[in-house]
Specification:
This protein is α/β, with parallel strands linked by helices and about 550 residues long. The chain is about 35% helix and about 15% strand. It is built from 16 helices and 17 strands. Helix 1 runs parallel beside helix 6 and helix 1 runs parallel beside helix 12.
Length: about 550
């Protein structure tokens, strides 16, 4: 399929590279979650590093991660067990070499996380308190502060990085576009309130900008998760892979006026039940593992039960669990529910699925290298193939940690390979003019909300050919007059990135005429191994 995306511009804004501030660094890291920070820490061993993040350094998807990080620590566990679980949940298309690489390095890098000051929860005997989640055959989930794992990891990594002498962190700085000379990445075009538009030239650039959950109305992701890195890589004609695979977390808080806060899978790992409005525990009807079935199964089961009962949600029941367990394992959940008048020791919690994790992303090899020279990608912005068609719970932080370190190690050791001297770089900003008839004023927030609703309704947990075509038609229409506009604000660029991510998701979903993992087609409800036991790659010039 040839892609026909209305956005033809190479850069979102026009710029004159000879009349704009230019800064230089050895390695440029875009993003400050576990992948970006781990990459930056590793890179400081070799050279000067600049980290750019669109909000405060601690504001990332990592910060909001509750469940934990998967690692085969126990003597009863093994790399092989963890690998088998990962491959099984992936629905047959995980890249086995990527999975082996990441899981093989898990213990080494998690041990170093602890050495760097990350405080994971321990039992009274001092041993790491390992939890079990859906799809895992063993207890292998390290957690911190009960359900505040991501926040603790983020704290430790930022503290470690700020003690480095050769790393500069630029907060509240938006990455607009990657700079390329031919098929070589040479840095990024950026914007902040201090320098306005400016360039950072780098020998190597590491993309760790996170996922695109904000393309959906219902999402666990923070407002910053607008698919910026995936979109800017796509504009640079980088190969993107598996964008149809969006993981929908089964249990997010569903209360009018409340953000769709994630309720960790560990609540079910500790013995929580899912019930419908009649109090019926329904998951044993759908899967032998009941509440501990893989996420895609639980999400679809919840949606089916909602249809059967004609309700907007189901309920998570923790009332039968010991009060001490609830207080020590889920302090953030307890506090959140109390703010809405719910006592998790006595009340059932209204939940429903929401978009949670972007499995697809910028295609990379085992070193984090992309199809563009000197550009690496890691974490949720990347697609190593580790997760296949469905991600095993708590494998995301692990992938970010291992691949962040891996990408930076390779970039640092090959710092000057294929790099271009500045005098040989020809950067041409693309002049843009508003087309006749295009409205000068645009209600960006209204269009963003319309896009999110369209994506949730037609490209969400359940999809059909007709629903995806409707979404694609709307996206094309909006993109046709949004992209020629010269925005000067972050929310305008984010809208353009969201439209790009939406286009990639719907195009790949429409093309994959089967159901696999977290991609579910009601009109093609079965897997088709003969035609579709494979990955989908997409690029601007070659299409799918």
């Amino acid at each position: 399929m040839v892609i026909e995306f209305p956005a033809k511009q190479r850069y979102l804004v026009s710029f004159d590279p000879h009349n704009i501030p230019i800064f230089f660094t050895d390695i440029l890291v875009l993003g400050s979650g576990i992948a970006g920070l781990s990459a930056a820490i590793e890179a400081t061993k070799y050279c000067n590093v600049t980290v750019v993040t669109k909000a405060e350094a601690s504001m990332s998807n990592t910060y909001y991660a509750q469940g934990g990080i998967a690692c085969p620590f126990s003597s009863e566990d093994s790399i092989q067990n963890h690998l088998r679980d990962t491959l099984q949940v992936s629905q047959g298309i995980a890249d086995e070499q990527a999975a082996k690489w990441i899981i093989k390095h898990a213990k080494q890098y998690v041990d170093e996380l602890i050495l760097w000051g990350t405080v994971f929860d321990r039992s009274s005997s001092g041993k790491l308190d390992l939890a079990k989640e859906g799809g895992h055959s063993k207890a292998r989930i390290l957690h911190a502060g009960g359900d505040a794992t991501g926040a603790e990891i983020e704290r430790a990594l930022i503290s470690k990085l700020k003690n480095s002498e050769n790393c500069n962190i630029l907060e509240n700085t938006f990455s607009i576009d990657l700079l390329t000379a031919g098929n070589t990445c040479v840095g990024a075009l950026l914007f902040n309130s201090i320098n306005k538009f400016f360039l950072i030239m780098a020998s190597k650039t590491i993309l760790a900008t996170g996922g695109a959950g904000q393309v959906f109305r219902e999402t666990t992701n923070p407002e910053i998760a607008t698919g910026d890195g995936i979109a800017m890589a796509f504009r640079a004609n980088c190969v993107v892979s598996d964008m149809e695979f969006i993981q929908f977390h089964p249990t997010t808080l569903y209360i009018a006026g409340a953000s769709r806060a994630l309720i960790s899978e560990t609540t079910r790992g500790e013995g929580g039940y899912l019930r419908d409005k009649n109090g019926y525990r329904f998951m044993p009807d759908y899967h032998p593992s009941a509440e501990l079935a893989p996420r895609d199964v639980v999400s679809r089961s919840i949606l089916e039960q909602m249809r059967k009962t004609n309700d907007t949600n189901v309920y998570l029941d923790l009332t039968h669990l010991p009060a001490k367990t609830l207080e020590t394992r889920f302090p953030k959940l307890k506090q959140l529910c109390e703010s809405f008048g719910l006592d998790i020791k006595k009340d059932i919690i209204p939940v429903r699925p929401s978009a949670h994790y972007t499995i697809g992303g910028v295609k990379t090899d085992l070193f984090g290298m992309t199809s563009i020279k000197n550009l690496y990608a890691c974490g949720e912005a990347a697609c190593t193939g580790f997760h296949g068609a469905n991600r095993l719970g708590s494998n995301s932080l692990l992938e970010g940690l291992v691949m962040g370190r891996t990408a930076a190690l390779h970039a640092g050791k090959n710092l000057h390979k294929d790099s271009l001297s500045f005098d040989k770089i020809k950067l041409l900003g693309t002049p843009k003019t508003q087309l006749p008839g295009i409205p000068v004023e645009l209600d960006i927030d209204d269009m963003t909300n319309s896009l999110k609703s369209q994506m949730w309704r037609n490209a969400g947990p359940e999809r059909t050919h007709d629903s995806l075509q409707e979404a694609l038609s709307k996206i094309n229409f909006w993109a046709g007059y949004v992209f020629p506009m010269q925005f000067q604000t972050v929310n305008g660029w984010e809208l353009q990135n969201l439209l790009t991510a939406a286009y990639l998701i719907t195009t790949c979903s429409l093309n994959r005429t089967e159901s696999r993992g977290c991609h579910y087609r009601k009109d093609f409800p079965e897997k088709d191994d003969k035609n579709w036991k494979k990955h989908q790659n997409i690029s601007l010039t070659k299409g799918v």
